TrEMBL record:
Keyword Metal-binding found: no
PROSITE patterns reported in the protein's UniProt record: PPIC_PPIASE_1, PPIC_PPIASE_2
Name the UniProt record assigns to this protein: Peptidyl-prolyl cis-trans isomerase
Native source species: Triticum aestivum
Domain PpiC positions: 1-113
Disordered, as annotated region: 57-78
Gene Ontology, cellular component aspect: cytosol; nucleus
Gene coding for it: LOC123056002
Catalysed conversion reaction: [protein]-peptidylproline (omega=180) = [protein]-peptidylproline (omega=0)
Length: 113
């Protein structure tokens, strides 16, 4: 499997720091609902063709994969958190998920392989 994603961390995320917010100040002040709203807004812009997925990931994702446009590279079953993996398996190559919750935060996932 292969996927790209946009991760938006929030106050309930297991690790409240990221490359964008090393001290976790903004993350700790972000509710899950606010994170999901941002993820949905990005998804809507991508789906409408107003924004490219990789550009949205580079500018908004709290994952280090943002530097690669959200690309996580290939991975095998059992390597990702269960809700993330389940969402990837349910997608066809080229499809984008709705908001997916994991212990890391909320994600928008693009299946790429």
């Amino acid at each position: 499997m292969r996927a790209s994603h946009i991760l938006i961390k929030h106050e309930g995320s297991r690790r409240k720091a990221s490359w964008r917010d090393p001290d976790g100040v903004a993350i700790s002040a972000t509710t899950r609902d606010d994170a999901a709203d941002l993820a949905r807004a990005l998804r809507d812009q991508i789906a409408a063709g107003e924004l490219q997925f990789d550009a949205a990931a580079r500018d908004n994702s709290d994952c280090n994969s943002a530097k690669r446009g959200g690309d996580l590279g290939p991975f095998e079953k059992g390597k990702m958190q269960k809700p993330f993996e389940k969402a990837v398996i349910a997608l066809k190559v080229g499809d984008m998920s709705d908001v997916v919750d994991t212990e890391s935060g909320v994600h928008i996932i693009l299946r790429t392989g």
